[in-house]
Amino acid sequence: MAVPKRKMSRSNTRHRRARWKATTPALVPVTVDGVSYLVPQRLVKAYERGLLRPEG
């Protein structure tokens, strides 16, 4: 495991953490029972197999 050689200042730590941003998932159209829904791409197969129920 990497261990820092010197203590990082509070200012540098917060500056580094502030750069990280979450991104919204890419939505893909999926047709379930004749109705089209926008779902995250990683969940398309689950919706097609009926493992998840679309909301709405």
Automatic annotation (TrEMBL):
Q: Does the keyword Cytoplasm apply?
A: no
A single GO CC term for this protein reads: large ribosomal subunit
- InterPro entries attached here? Ribosomal_bL32, Ribosomal_zn-bd
MF terms in GO: structural constituent of ribosome
Q: Which Pfam families match?
A: Ribosomal_L32p (PF01783)
Write out the GO biological process terms.
translation
> Which keywords does this Swiss-Prot/TrEMBL entry list?
Ribonucleoprotein, Ribosomal protein
Q: Which domain of life is it from?
A: Bacteria
UniProt region (Disordered), positions on chain: 1-20
Its family? Belongs to the bacterial ribosomal protein bL32 family.
Name of the protein:
Large ribosomal subunit protein bL32
Q: Which organism is it from?
A: Streptomyces misionensis
Record lineage: Bacteria, Bacillati, Actinomycetota, Actinomycetes, Kitasatosporales
Identify the gene encoding this protein.
rpmF
